[in-house]
Amino acid sequence: MLSGLWNLLFFAVALGILITIHELGHFLAARYCGVRVLRFSLGFGPVLFARTLKDGCQFAISAIPLGGYVKMQDEELPDKHSPQAKLRPDSFMAKSLKQRALIIAAGPAFNIVLAFLLYVIVNLIGVNVLRPVVGDVIPQSRAAMAGLQVYDEIKSIDGTPVNDWSDAAMLLVGHLNEDTPLSLQVVSNLGDGEGREISLNLAGLELHPTQDLLTLIGLRPCSGKVSDVLTHVASDGPAYAAGLSPGDKIVSLNGAKMDNWYRIQDAIARSEGTIKVQILRDGNTYQAEIYPEQRCNAEGTQCRPYIGVGVGIEPIKDLFTTKSYGPLDALWQAGINTARMSLFIVSSTYKLISGQISADNISGPIAIAKGAGESASFGFVFFLSFLAAISVNLGILNLLPIPVLDGGQLLFIAYQALTGRTPSPKVQYVLTLFGLCCIISLSLFAVFNDLRAL
């Protein structure tokens, strides 16, 4: 209950900021072009609060907080005016095509500028990140077939530098289901740290909402060098009852060879009934049988086998680092962050439309609310990073050539610029209605995906 309220609070904060900035772009551009603004509204539907400013512009907060609008003088479809009708000089339709295009494009542009400024702040403050060091490689996975090894660090993907797992994940998901293998530069954190190039094939892979990208590829991030020797055996646990003790090394479980702790954890989690274990102690091999207990979370909704053992973790130097920049470098890096996020969204949108990525990955307001709450729980900087990513998303998706969006309005203006004719009012009406139906259908589908993922 509390987590839901927390998510809702930061969803409202995020949505309020993004919508305000978007509509502010339209508003300021309209003022700059000499267009009279009748209403600046945050939200749609019935007006809950309104205040009229000295210039006659009404500021309003409306009941449905899933958008907003700027209502300008004479921006209705042309069928509202006869061909002889005289427009006011301060009306939207009286302005040149360039001015109208500027007013419409200003909303998405302001969202992208907001993202850039947020990234500047994030880069100035600094954020703790996890270096892209591999903690485990799942057997028979794409990562294993590529030759990735435990404690390898990914330095670049197709020539693009990688600083943390967030960078790696964004680049990897952008190349999912592509026929051309990726070129990865990796360096081992073992031995002499020699670098090498490997080829990772992601063709035929499809990410579903319930899947983790790295697990799909066959990777687990490293949190340190995990010992393969038991350092803890709970005195009230099944492993202790079976005779295991600190210093033992688990060699196999149920006949399957165990070469690292992650593999041991997976084998225990998948076990059903008795576990036959082979251990190495003081150079000698011993056999034992463990009868796991079922341990559940506080709600009793998730249970898993428990044997009561643990291992030590030897830290890797500077595995967690703080990325921060000086003023000039922060500006440059913010540009890179914004460009990379923009390209990622464009690529992902294209792959969704072309069917390369499942439509099940489309997220709606519930997923965004969850993301807002989770990022805020990690700290102020993480929330700003989340806000920047969503702002870029909003800016670019608003430029899609769907009539009800800004991109659709730009499409009508482009048609008029190329043909010299205003689009037929009937055609505009039909296309706008079709676009609205598409957006509503897509929104409902996204909410369905959100509910299914809960």
SSE ordering: HEEHEEHEEHEEHEEHEEHEEEEEEHHHHH
Helix content range: 40-55%
Distance between the termini: 14 Å
Strand percentage:
15-25%
* Secondary-structure class: alpha+beta
What average pLDDT do the residues reach?
85
What's the story with the biggest beta sheet?
4 strands, antiparallel
Q: Helical element count?
A: 12
Low-confidence stretches: none
What's the arrangement of strands in the largest beta sheet?
6-5-7-8
The shape, in one word, is elongated
CA-based gyration radius: 28 Å
The count of β-strands is 18
GO biological process, one term: proteolysis
Subcellular location: Membrane
Keywords: Hydrolase, Membrane, Metal-binding, Metalloprotease, Protease, Transmembrane, Transmembrane helix, Zinc
Enzyme class: hydrolase
General description of the model:
The protein has 454 residues and is α+β, with helices and mostly antiparallel strands. Among the domains are: 2-8 and 91-126 and 363-453, no CATH class; 225-314, PDZ domain (Pdz3 Domain). It is built from twelve helices and 18 strands. The chain has helices at 2-32, 97-125, 142-146, 165-174, 213-217, 238-241, 261-270, 327-354, 365-378, 380-397, 406-419, 425-453, and strands at 37-52, 58-72, 127-130, 134-137, 152-157, 160-161, 182-188, 195-200, 219-221, 225-233, 249-253, 256-257, 275-281, 284-290, 293-296, 303-306, 309-314, 320-323. The strands form seven sheets. The chain has a four-stranded antiparallel sheet with strand order 6-5-7-8. Strand 15 and strand 16 form a beta hairpin. Helix 2 (97-125) runs antiparallel to helix 11 (406-419). The longest helix has 31 residues, at 2-32. It is elongated and about 100 Å long.
